[in-house]
Design brief:
The chain is mainly alpha-helical. Helices cover about 50% and strands about 10% of the residues. It is built from 8 helices and 3 strands.
Length: about 180
């Protein structure tokens, strides 16, 4: 069975919260605005679980209309180690893949929903890029490629919202394949 951290992260709503807040500091209201289809009480329950699990922290509190609004941030980029995933059964791995892929499908659906009423959708003009490529890499080459991609992502994640900057969701997954 996977560890508590894996159980925290590998949940569809919590994974979306972590993704939304990954490069920002956000209030529960801002998180809710980004996930309008999820009831606020459900979001609070998952935010509290992420707080209890040490993945989110309160970085600011400010008074708003007689109450205190909390601003949340990640304690560190959420990542799973071998220890976190140790002991996963095949079914748990399948569930983790399903959750990950369902969040990808949800992102695609939100993109399509944003085009509602449009007679024509042109994903390439909108910046949608989908690719799948087979690579032959040694373990060292794979580690180097993966670390460079992570370095580029973390550098780009420092960008703050600004005029001309489009919010983009970047997703990648490596799956080892048997050589034919």
């Amino acid at each position: 069975m996977p560890g508590n951290k894996a159980n925290l992260i590998l949940h569809p709503v919590r994974l979306r919260i972590l993704t939304a807040i990954s490069t920002y500091r956000m209030t529960a209201t801002e998180i809710s605005d980004a996930m309008a289809e999820i009831p606020l009480t459900t979001l609070y329950r998952h935010i509290n679980a992420l707080m209890d699990g040490g993945l989110l922290t309160v970085v600011e509190e400010r008074p708003v209309r007689g109450t205190v609004e909390r601003v949340y941030a990640l304690t560190a980029p959420p990542s799973l180690t071998a220890d976190d995933l140790n002991g996963m059964s095949r079914e748990e791995c399948e569930q983790a893949f399903t959750i990950y892929l369902s969040t990808l499908m949800s992102d695609a659906q939100r993109y399509l929903d944003s085009k509602a009423g449009s007679n024509e959708i042109n994903p390439l003009d909108d910046g949608v890029h989908i690719s799948k490529v087979q690579l032959f890499l040694t373990d060292d080459e794979f580690d180097l490629m993966n670390s460079k991609m992570m370095e580029w992502m973390l550098e780009a994640a420092k960008n703050q919202p600004a005029a001309g900057r489009q919010r983009r969701m970047f997703t990648y997954m490596f799956i080892p394949m048997e050589n034919d």
